[in-house]
Every structure is written in C-alpha cells, then in structure tokens.
Amino acid sequence: xxxxxxxxxxxxxxxxxxxxxxxxxxxxxxxxxxxxxxxxxxxxxxxxxxxxxxxxxxxxxxxxx
Length: 65
Prior knowledge:
Layout: H1 3-33, H2 40-62
Helix pairs in contact: 1-2
C-alpha cells in the first residue's frame, strides 16, 4: 500500500463526503422541520470515517494477488 495514495484519497473522499452529507442534512432539516440547520458533527464524523475506509479498501483491491 502506498501511503501517499491513501493520504490523497483521504483528502478527496473527506471533502466529497463532507459536502454531500452537509447538503443532505441541510435539505432534510429544511424539509422535515422547516429549519435549514446543518448537523456539522454528523457530517464531519461521516466524512472522517469514509475518508479513512474508502482509500484503504481501494488500495487493498489494487494490490496484486
């Protein structure tokens, strides 16, 4: 596994998941409760978890058998 690829993947996935989950949380809050509030804690937690897991899984799949 190449650490540089994992770090680059972490940054990319973290940003993507953070933006998408913040947007979905905002739209859910707006539609369900009538208030446009973003749940920053949940968005950050989800982005951090997927930011770690997805690049590692990708590198493990690329590894020759």
